[in-house]
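Q: Okay, next protein. This is NAD(P)/FAD-dependent oxidoreductase from Acinetobacter corruptisaponis. I've checked the sequence twice, so it should be correct. Can you predict the 3D structure?
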Amino acid sequence: MQHDVAIIGGSYAGLAAAMPLARARRNVVIIDAGQRRNRFAEYSHGFLTRDGTKASEIAQIAKEQVLAYKTVQWEDGSVKRIEKVNDGFAVCIDATRSVTARRLIIAAGITDQLPEISGLAERWGKTIFHCPYCHGYELNQGKIGIIASSEHSAHMAMMLPDWGKTTIFINDYPVPDELLVQLKARGVHIENRAIQEITGQSDVVLADGSVIQLDGIFATTKCTIAQDWIFKLGCEIEQNAIGEAIKTNSMKETSVAGIFACGDVARLGSSVPLAVGDGTMAGAAAHRSLIFG
């Protein structure tokens, strides 16, 4: 059976993409490897009607609602290869089976490369975060840290005083002097001593043994596309200080005909609401392309 659309990635963006296609009674297959990007965070915030809900619960309810449509099929597994075939694409899953589809929506997410600081990875999504809009409010105007690790760090540090008393840990990262002046004007404390490790809830141990206790820490990551098959498809990739993403137009079309992309893999800067919005657009656009070419 040839599907109308194969969606790679069954998290928020992929499920949102499936919904308009399902409601148009199109045959859809969703292929998911079970590695939701925000699986490290227990709760999701800032999504209308679901604010403060468990992130896993939102994903599970979405899956149940989409699979209630009889034309939607779910495949557990990892995509290993995609080949262009007549009138569509052949998608190899786990090197054991394949499906074909006329259109392809990539919602495969990205991989976060975390700063290499002892104790950070274990606290990622719990007391160390990437987005103040998603997690800043719950820190209750407490003491907040931001670790300088990219060009985006100073930008985030300028924002964070709206959520609490902020310290930026330079940690040997080259922050321009003019930005340091702006940060001080915003009331941000500049900490130049290097970080040795992070312990406790979110306590920063410095190289001289001093400990700074915080209510939460923010850190920027390098977002990378881990799936080699995406590059082999020839989709144009865009890059900036945050990382890399598949380039799309306003209808979520990639540079390759018949392929759409949505969610974190196609947006430099992301959240659950944005993923859902992008996914809905990608699904609707893929449906229209089946009709109008």
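A: Here is a summary of the prediction. The chain has a mean pLDDT of 96. The longest helix spans residues 272-292.
Q: Noted. On to the next one.
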